[in-house]
Amino acid sequence: MSIKTISLLFAVIFLAGCQANVKKSDSSQTMADAKPSAPTLASSQSTTPPRTPVTQAEALPKKTMTAYESLTDKLVKQGQQALAEKRLLTPVEDNANLYFQAVLGRDPGNYSATVGIAEIVDTYTQWAWNTAQQGNYKMATRYLASARSANPEDATITQMEQRIARLKAQRAAAVARQKAAQPSAESSQKENGHAVETAVTTASAKAGQYFLPKTLFSLSDDEIVEKMQPIIDKVKKDKNDIAIYWPNDKEARLIYQIINSRVVDFRVRAMIYHRSDYMVELQQN
Predict the structure, then answer these.
(1) CA dihedral 107, 109, 115, 119 (to 10 degrees)
(2) Model confidence over 111-121: pLDDT tens digits?
(3) Is the entire prediction scored with pTM above 0.70?
(4) What is the per-residue burial (b if ≥16 Cβ within 10 Å, else e) of 57-88?
(5) What single DSSP character describes residue 93?
């Protein structure tokens, strides 16, 4: 083979290699320059309709009260109604304290019942203070006893007892100073007048009080009614509330029922005190 032929062969091989490189480069450039087509507006938007937001109230099922919860709620409302009408401890079968205590028996710590009992205590302690300011310490003590029957552990009761005791002591001290400042003769007249006034007050305190025999319920039904008839007649006439001082709770309730059943014009309201006075006292309305 001649040198010329060999040279021509090398030239052909060289040109073929360059052509391959050029084509490969063009292909790479074409692929690099190619850009992905932008998504059209139609494809970018979903054809699925948007979801309506679900509120928390719709997501959670509505809670239905059980029969137990429904009865508890009913008792709370009855207690609140009785409280609004000042049926705090009486009548014995329909009063605010009765309903609220029943609620706490079913649901200890119930907020509404706890607040209701606190309002009963507040009402009685305020009544106690008002009557103490009028000088009626005996009635103030009764109101505090009523407050204690609703919640004996309420600190408001002890605070009011102390406040009334201070008021009573201050008044007594003022009276003592006044007496000490008077001449002896005038002081004597004052003491005599005070003694007369005290006697009159004691007599008026007995008005409206009806003492009954301790053995009342050992009598026949007719005899029991006969003993209580003066009380029934007076309550019918003046429409008084009553206070029953009796050591036996069951017998005290019977006394109330006898009086209330024979007074048809209105419903008699009563307060029961567990004391051995065996007495029914008419309250001044």
Answers:
(1) 90
(2) 999 999 999 99
(3) no
(4) eeeeeeeeeeeeeeebeebbebbbebbeeebb
(5) T
